[in-house]
Amino acid sequence: MSTKARLNRMFSAQGKCFDVAIDHGFFNEYSFLAGIENMKGAIETVVKAGPDCIQLSTGQAKLLQEIPGKQKPGLVLRTDAANIYGNVLPRFLFSELIDRAIEQAVRWDAVAVCVNLLLLPGQPELHHQCVRNITLLKSECEKYGMPLMVEPLVMLPNEEKGGYMVDGDIRKIMPLVRQGVELGADVIKADPSDDVTEYHRVIEVASGVPVLVRGGGRASDEEIVNRTVELMKQGASGIVYGRNVIQHPNPGGMTSALMSIVHEGAAAEQALAILKGGRV
């Protein structure tokens, strides 16, 4: 069964997508709850701003799919819960798939599923588990025509930065992105590189699979807008931002500003004007 029908709901006719991640409560990390304590309100605010997709866990998907009407974002279902995001890594690390993930995605009318491909220093068992998760999901995705979004995530040593800190070394991002493609990803959700003007190299190594770039931790409005403009120029198919939307004082305005960059090619100044003007 082809994934095309669902990918057409996820991406615009020009092949662009903005997915707002609101699945952070899945990971048992207190700092991730800021801005999403009230999930119903957070989802309604983002839905009103009209992104292409919202990324949620199976336990919260109903808050999106119970909203009446046809004009709402597609659901990207997060399929694995991991415990790698605290300041101190636990003795035992995991990235555990939910049971019958693709059947749950079909039941919730998802447009795609998302799964981690984690690379932490000195943790080959965790990487192995992620590879196994992806291979299991891929077979089921093919059966049901469900697009598979793989999230290659290179992280710094905890003792170096502590907590959920990504490694922006493009020489580490590129091979992990390529591994995700080789494992069968229909969409890649990858970190930005330290030097975003090099990001065309990541796009190239993805071999035609659309790359959506992660937002990471909170950054200033100017930084996130300028970075997004450059990433789109480098050939990204869109973005998956979470905390830079849901922890922003004006999440609706930030969504509108970022949508203007992704879909209309807006310059940084234009996007910041939308944000400051509060146009939602």
Give a description of the structure:
- It holds the Pfam family DeoC.
- It comes from Cohnella silvisoli.
- This is Aldolase.
- This protein has 280 residues and is of the alpha/beta class.
- It has one domain (4-277): Aldolase class I (TIM Barrel).
- 41% of the residues lie in helices and 18% in strands.
- It contains twelve helices and ten strands.
- The chain has helices at 4-10, 39-49, 61-65, 101-107, 124-144, 158-161, 170-182, 200-205, 221-233, 243-246, 251-264, 268-277, and strands at 17-21, 53-56, 74-78, 80-82, 95-97, 110-119, 148-154, 187-190, 211-214, 238-241.
- The strands form two sheets. Strands 1-2-3-6-7-8-9-10 form an eight-stranded parallel β-barrel, surrounded by seven helices. The protein has a two-stranded antiparallel sheet with strand order 4-5.
- Helix 3 (61-65) links the parallel strand 2 and strand 3.
- Helix 2 runs parallel beside helix 11 (251-264) and helix 4 packs across helix 5 (124-144).
- It is globular and about 50 Å long.
List the SSEs and their pairings.
Elements: H1 4-10, E1 17-21, H2 39-49, E2 53-56, H3 61-65, E3 74-78, E4 80-82, E5 95-97, H4 101-107, E6 110-119, H5 124-144, E7 148-154, H6 158-161, H7 170-182, E8 187-190, H8 200-205, E9 211-214, H9 221-233, E10 238-241, H10 243-246, H11 251-264, H12 268-277
Parallel strand pairs: 1-2, 1-10, 2-3, 3-6, 6-7, 7-8, 8-9, 9-10
Antiparallel strand pairs: 4-5
